[in-house]
Design a protein that fits this description.
The protein has six helices and 14 strands. It has about 350 residues and is of the alpha+beta class. The two termini are about 75 Å apart.
């Protein structure tokens, strides 16, 4: 009969030993569990920190950074209108033709104005002859004594001479006006630029003050950037600007020339009764208004044509906004704590 121990004879003691072996994990397994938990917490913290940094960067980039893709090329357009009326007898330019300041654009029928110059010239000659006669008569009367003529008669002839002199000056002014109108039958360009959207033809009737030809002033191009009002604190007159047109890779350099001081608002319009027409807005939705900023073009590639209306991306300065004050305070505090800890450690080592 085999020998047995007391523990083997006691089944309750064996069960307790087996349960204790199950509930008490080995020390190595416990350490691995703690390391995995710490790793998960650290990974979660890193992800949250990365998400916070990414959110701050996106906020700074899209809300506060002074840049916009809502830019446009602008230009001045000279609307040429004749100063006299008449039928167009000669057209000297074509659509999209480049012209210089003073170049002839078209000619109005000059016949009527030539007749007016001839008539005015004849009137001047007539008044000059009349003035000579009146001056001679007045001089003769002034040479006579009061025995041959009266003082009243002398005054009458002297006044007639004065009237003839004034009439001559009026006729000379009319002659000058007739010559100016004749010169105005040749309509010339007032700027350097390119003729655009030319619809005029020979035989059309030109009316005084009515524009019939447009010229794009090639010396007046500029860039308008429409910036959200949240970015205006980082834009100042004189700041450097970088402009990228949508259809071209080279960049244009410029300078902020001016900032618009007013934009239209719908709430400023009056109703039919003269009362303010205020539109209801949702307090939880606020859209930033866009403010036009004018950028002067300082340098552009020679082979890049500028066309009014082209889309542009405008970046003012470095295109980055300064760090928020709370971030700067936090960074200063962290830097101060780090420097203090380093100083304490070095002091302990000494």
């Amino acid at each position: 009969m085999p020998a047995t121990t007391a523990d083997e004879d006691d089944p309750k003691a064996a069960a307790r030993e087996e349960a204790q072996s199950r509930t008490d994990p080995p020390p190595l397994t416990a350490r691995r569990g703690r390391a995995a938990k710490i790793s998960r917490l650290a990974a979660t913290g890193v992800i949250l920190l990365f998400a916070f940094v990414a959110a701050a960067f996106v906020w700074e980039f899209y809300v506060a950074a002074p840049w916009t893709r809502d830019g446009s090329v602008r230009v001045q357009v000279a609307n040429i209108a004749p100063q006299v009326s008449g039928q167009i007898v000669s057209l000297r330019v074509q659509d999209n033709q480049f012209v210089h300041k003073g170049d002839l654009l078209y000619v109005i029928d000059p016949v009527d104005f030539e007749v007016a110059v001839t008539s005015a010239d004849a009137e001047v000659k007539n008044r000059e002859a009349d003035l000579q006669v009146k001056n001679a008569q007045s001089a003769r009367r002034q040479a006579l004594t009061t025995v041959s003529t009266s003082v009243e008669e002398k005054q009458q002839f002297a006044g007639a001479a004065k009237i003839a002199e004034a009439t001559l000056e009026s006729a000379q002014a009319q002659l000058r006006q007739a010559k100016v109108n004749l010169e105005r039958t040749q309509v010339k360009s007032t700027v350097n630029g390119r003729v655009t959207n030319l619809l005029m033809r020979v035989g059309d009737y030109a009316r005084t003050g009515t524009s019939n030809i447009s010229i794009v002033d090639t010396d007046s191009f500029w860039i308008d950037g429409y910036f959200e009002e949240t970015k205006m604190a980082n834009i100042h007159v004189g700041d450097a600007a970088d402009v990228k047109l949508m259809g071209y890779d080279p960049h244009i350099t410029g300078t902020v020339e001016s900032i618009t001081l007013g934009i239209s608002t719908a709430n400023a319009a009056a109703s039919t009764q003269g009362l303010p027409d205020v539109n209801p807005v949702y307090t939880w939705v606020r859209l930033a208004q866009r403010v036009p900023v004018r950028v002067r073009i300082d340098k552009k590639p020679a082979d890049m044509p500028l066309v009014a209306g082209m889309t542009a991306t405008v970046v003012v300065g470095t295109g980055r906004a300064p760090m928020p004050t709370w971030f700067m305070d936090l960074r200063n505090r962290v830097s101060g704590l780090t420097n203090s800890a380093i100083g304490t450690h070095e002091a302990d080592r000494r």
